[in-house]
Structures are given as structure tokens and as C-alpha cells.
Design goal:
By secondary structure, the chain is α+β, with helices and mostly antiparallel strands. It has helices spanning 2-15, 21-30, 37-46, 88-97, 123-134; strands at residues 49-52, 55-58, 70-74, 78-82, 103-108, 112-117, 137-138. The protein is elongated and about 50 Å long.
Length: 139
Amino acid sequence: MHRALDQAILDLVQSEAIPDQAVLGQRLTDLGMEVSQPSLSRRLKRLNIVKRDGRYRHDPAEAPLKPSVRIFPAPPNLLILKTQPGFAQAVGAVLDEKPLPGQVGTVAGDDTVMVVLGNPERMQASIDDARRRFGAVLG
């Protein structure tokens, strides 16, 4: 569903003059794809879609922001990842796509991702992987 939604967004902004998120959201609904405004906003950033000359355009040269991530271990089996406001959903999506060692689930808010580990013995391996993948530092 996520790839189909991303592709639909790219197709719409390339083929139509989409002036704002409300119009884009309605066009997606017309195509049978429901997406919340906050989720749509995050997708636009991730897909490098920018507003220029009063309409959305795909700009692959527009570099996405890279969030800073701080790790707060919460033994025995939780990792708390803190980032700037608005980036937790993106970090959570990355972790859902490619989990940390021992990860069984995530819960993402606005600036915080809670990572649940199924095996507390995987804590250090998960911290090391998060540090490598996100350039994360221990809080």
C-alpha cells in the first residue's frame, strides 16, 4: 500500500497542477487511497516534493533532511529514540522496513520512537545498529 500511495502521489503531482495538500488529499481519496494530512505532509518531504510557482513538483535534487537521533536504553527490552519534531514517523517507518536486531515492534509519535525488543540480550546489538544506521548517539 505504501509504495502504491507514493507512486500515486508522484503521478498526480507530475500530471496535474496540485496547489495544496487539501487538493492532493482529495485526489488520492478519489483514487481510493485514504491518507491523513500529517502522513501526507511527511510523504511529500520524503518523496522530495516541493511547492514552486503555486503547485507541487517532484524535485529529486531537493535533499531530504536527515534527522538526528539520540538513543535512550530503557532496560530490560525497550529503546527510546528521540529526534526532532516531525521525524519520528519516518524513523519508525525505516525500522519497520528493516528492524533492529531483536525488534518486535515500534510505536512512533512526533519526536519519539519506542522500539520493543523481544529478547533483552539483543539490546547492545540494537544500539550498535541504530548508531550505525542513523548516526545516533546515546542520550
